[in-house]
Design a protein that fits this description.
With about 550 residues, the protein is α/β, with parallel strands linked by helices. The chain folds into 2 domains: about 300 residues, Aminopeptidase (3-Layer(aba) Sandwich), CATH 3.40.630.10; about 190 residues, Glucose Oxidase, domain 1, CATH 3.50.30.30. It is built from 14 helices and 22 strands. Strands 1, 2, 11, 14, 15, 18, 19, 20, 21 and 22 form a 10-stranded mixed sheet that branches. An 8-stranded mixed sheet has the order 4-3-13-6-9-10-12-5, with no helix packed on it. The longest helix is centred in the first third of the chain and has 20 residues. The termini are far apart. The N terminus and C terminus are likely disordered. The structure holds zinc ion. The site of zinc ion (ZN) has 3 residues, from loops.
């Protein structure tokens, strides 16, 4: 990898932990907030917990650690079994030696063409979160971004015969579609594809806004993928084939089509719509996988509200507890510790519970502390909770999520994902003013972060939500630090305890988070979506859902 000075990082961290130890063992008895925060990460991101893969022993022990911390903080059990809410998953793991992918060149339309194998891992991977057909063979149609956005009269599928076809698409969307819509319709793309009769999808990973280089992301293909076992909670029913294609190898898919991938990328870089056309080839796939049922846990604790009128309303604080477990070694290290992603967010959640308990702070509304599983498997733990909340669904008034808030440089601003969408922005603005920091919109909307973490599970149930991070301005030196961190450490074994962390930033962020919780849990009116927000529609849909 590109890390130039790993030994230097080790030195820095050791010296910082020496300082921390010194503060805790000298006569200074005032607790150091970052030291306690760090102590949770030291356990959760230790090699002992082996990367907290959903359903693993490491995750189970992490869940027990969280439940014990909730209990110490005096939270009421908020699960279905004490603090736990068990969730069942179907786990699928590719047997790559018995699987294959090929293109059948068939320019003259004969039934038997020339088979060109595609190298699994190097060129493409099967996405195992769907129930693949054991064998698929179908003509390919390039459908641009494959998006159908009724609000903008935008339809990449219009006028194409897609019945029984496999579509080839580039992930992303044109700039004419506002960010939230683009994000939402990418997430729910299968709905329109299915209606059009499509049986499978080959998705070329768009290099724009991509966090992990292919060389690293391909390693994840051999890990099991999970989907919710409960029928009806998965939205990809009917899809027979799901392939992700390496953009650096995608040119070969366009041979003889009259178009090139280079030309398509040029349009995509300019934010323009893409041409759509049949590819003179078919795809042939054989997929063999191992399947089993896996159980994992959400962990929930409740701080009851004090106002008789408002205590049946709940503010849900989420952070995901799971990470990606163990996998292909990188630099000899097979454990993906997930220190920033997201032991750091869980540590922030636990410290909030502890601080409220120590200061005997309660709020007008009730607050649910929720550590969710299976975020790394498509937000599926939070999706399960949102479908089966342990309090009445209509009482959930807001969600505040913390995922990988990255205290890597001084805390001078919040990035608030969802800032433009609801009047939770008012709480953020007033807290930020009171502590002298700024509030920033997401500087990288192309990463679709608002729909890529657990807040999205609540948004889809109509609940106004935000996600908070340490802020940076686009193209600033801090942005470079974040981008480098993603390239080198995000979903890599090096997201471990041997990395530089700005402890002062972490402590200040954690203190600011407490103020945000206080503001939302005590506000006079229940939070509302802005009338201009795309996500408001889900709040209306929710009214039709019967109360549990
Ligand atoms: Zn992650």
């Amino acid at each position: 990898m590109l890390r130039s000075a790993p030994l230097l990082f080790v030195t820095i961290v050791l010296s910082v932990s020496q300082v921390v130890v010194a503060q805790n063992t000298t006569h200074d008895t005032t607790p150091n907030p970052a030291a306690r925060w760090l102590s949770h990460i030291q356990y959760l991101a230790s090699d002992e917990l082996a990367g907290r893969e959903t359903g693993s022993e490491g995750h189970r022990r992490a869940a027990e650690y969280v439940a014990a911390a909730f209990k110490r903080a005096g939270l009421k059990p908020g699960g279905t079994q004490g603090y736990f809410q068990p969730v069942k998953f179907i786990s699928r793991k590719i047997v790559e030696q018995q699987s294959s992918l090929a293109i059948i060149r068939n320019p003259k339309g004969q039934s038997s063409g020339k088979e060109e194998p595609i190298v699994l891992g190097e060129e493409a991977t099967f996405s195992m979160s769907i129930e693949h057909a054991s064998r698929t063979e179908a003509p390919i149609v390039f459908v641009g971004y494959g998006l159908t956005v009724p609000e903008n009269n935008y339809d990449d599928l219009a006028g194409l015969d897609l019945r029984g076809k496999v579509v080839l698409l580039l992930s992303g969307g044109p700039s004419e579609i506002p960010g939230p819509l683009r994000a939402h319709y990418q997430n729910t793309r299968w709905e329109a594809l299915k209606r059009a009769g499509v049986i499978g999808v080959i998705s070329i990973q768009n290099p724009i806004g991509q966090d992990i280089p292919w060389e690293r992301s391909k390693l994840a293909r051999l890990r099991p993928a999970l989907s919710l076992a409960e029928p009806g909670l998965e939205e990809n029913a009917g899809q027979q084939l799901a392939v992700t294609f390496n953009p650096a190898k995608a040119e070969r898919l366009f041979v003889d089509s009259g178009h090139s991938f280079a030309e398509i990328m040029k349009l995509a870089e300019a934010g323009k719509p893409l041409p759509r056309f049949a590819i003179p080839a078919s795809v042939r796939a054989t997929v063999k996988f191992e399947k089993q049922i896996v159980e994992s846990q959400n962990v929930a604790g409740i701080l009851p509200g004090t106002d008789p009128r408002l205590r049946s309303e709940y503010v849900v604080l989420t952070a995901h507890l799971d990470h990606v477990g163990t996998g292909e070694p990188i630099n000899g290290d097979p454990i993906y510790n997930g220190a920033m992603d997201n032991a750091s967010g869980i540590a922030t959640l636990l410290e909030a519970a502890r601080t409220f308990s120590e200061k005997k702070l309660r709020f007008r509304r009730s607050v649910i502390f929720l550590a969710v599983t299976a975020e790394e498997h498509g937000l599926r733990g939070s999706k399960y909770y949102a479908a089966h909340p342990t309090v009445p669904a209509t009482g959930i008034v807001a969600n505040i999520n913390i995922d990988m808030f990255l205290p890597l440089f001084p805390f001078r601003s919040f990035i608030v994902q969802g800032l433009e969408e609801s009047n939770l922005a008012e709480d953020l603005q007033s807290v930020a003013r009171s502590i002298g920091v700024e509030v920033l919109s997401d500087p990288e909307p192309e990463r679709r972060a608002f729909v890529r973490s657990d807040q999205y599970s609540f948004i889809r149930k109509g609940v106004p939500a935000i996600s908070l991070k340490v802020g940076f301005v686009k193209d600033s030196p801090e942005h470079e630090i974040v981008k480098r961190w993603r390239r080198e450490r995000y979903h890599a074994p090096s997201d471990d305890l041997q990395q530089p962390i700005d402890f002062e930033a972490a402590a200040k962020f954690n203190a600011a988070y407490l103020r945000v919780i206080e503001s939302v849990a005590n506000r006079a009116e229940r939070p509302r979506w802005n009338s201009s927000s795309f996500f408001k529609r889900f709040a209306h849909a929710e009214k039709d859902v019967p109360r549990r």
